[in-house]
Specification:
With about 170 residues, the chain is of the alpha+beta class. The chain has six helices and seven strands, in the order E-E-E-E-H-H-H-H-E-E-E-H-H. It has a single domain, classed as L-2-Hydroxyisocaproate Dehydrogenase, Chain A, domain 2 (Alpha-Beta Complex). Belongs to the LDH/MDH superfamily. MDH type 2 family.
């Protein structure tokens, strides 16, 4: 399943394009309200649940994610499939703001490089969530503008995007 956007509570699990045993998720799970609310929120807050449970972030989970990301880049992506990873957005086909790092669907020939998957299906719900995650990343970028030479920093991040234990 593709995860779009930031690694925070605004991340977007893309159930619109996901499959269960080769069938579209929305054919298998007909409860759209559950997918949009309960499922999405559970995915968005899963990291916070681990932090609350263990009192710290899971280094093992991070390590597994790094290994999975590297494996995705050095293993050819099967035809019709893709993986999601945080990439620099310049030149992306989705109209997501330039110059941020944003998780998007990618594929690899197994040569260590990637290409963005184009023409992924979107609906209003998915696009709205993607734009919310994009707005958060743009706000985060403003917070560190003084470090990147882009002017004075101005931080206006909403508290509800932070994982428990991060504040």
């Amino acid at each position: 399943m593709t995860i779009w956007g930031n690694h925070s509570t605004t991340q977007v699990p893309d159930f619109l394009n996901a499959k269960i045993n080769g069938r579209p998720v929305k054919e298998v799970i007909k409860d759209t309200k559950w997918l949009e609310e309960d499922f999405t929120i559970t995915v968005q807050k899963r990291g916070g649940v681990l932090i609350q449970k263990w009192g710290r972030s899971s280094a093992a989970s991070t390590a597994v994610s790094i290994v999975d990301a590297m494996r995705s880049l050095v293993t050819p992506t099967p035809e019709g499939d893709w993986f999601s990873t945080g990439v620099y957005t310049t030149g992306n086909p989705y109209g997501i703001a330039e110059d941020i790092v944003f998780s998007m669907p990618c594929r690899s020939k197994g040569d260590g490089d990637y290409e963005l998957v184009k023409d992924v299906a979107m609906d209003d719900f998915l696009w709205g969530r993607i734009k919310k995650s994009e707005a958060e990343l743009i706000a985060e970028k403003r917070c560190v503008a003084h470090l990147t030479g882009e002017g004075n920093a101005f931080c206006d991040l909403p508290g509800d995007t932070m994982l428990p234990g991060e504040m």
